[in-house]
Amino acid sequence: MLSLRDCLDYCDLTEDDVDLLAEHEHLPHDVAAHIACGLVQTSSGVLLIDHVMEDMIEQARTGGQVAKAEHVLHVYARFKAAHPLAH
Questions:
Q1: What predicted TM-score, i.e. pTM, was given to this entire model?
Q2: Running DSSP on this structure, what letter comes out for residue 85?
Q3: Taking Cα atoms as reference points, which of 1, 5, 19 lies closest to residue 76?
Q4: Which end of the chain is more exposed for a tag (fewer CB within 10 A), N or C?
Q5: How many domains does the chain have?
Q6: Is the pLDDT of residue 37 over 60?
């Protein structure tokens, strides 16, 4: 049986990727991980995660959360590099 870490490694996702999706969609971490692993299998799924991260950057900036915006930007840059299909 695959562990959650095995699943994330297979899908080239980080804990930060999953944490952001979980936060944005108000999901438990393990549920968000399974959803994210499925989403990165298609270009439309990668685009969806891309939009989630862009939305979180905008929300943080609008809310004056500079450190959070910078963190999400860092996670987003790594995600785009690992999943260039949509970019």
A1: 0.86
A2: G
A3: 19
A4: N
A5: 1
A6: yes
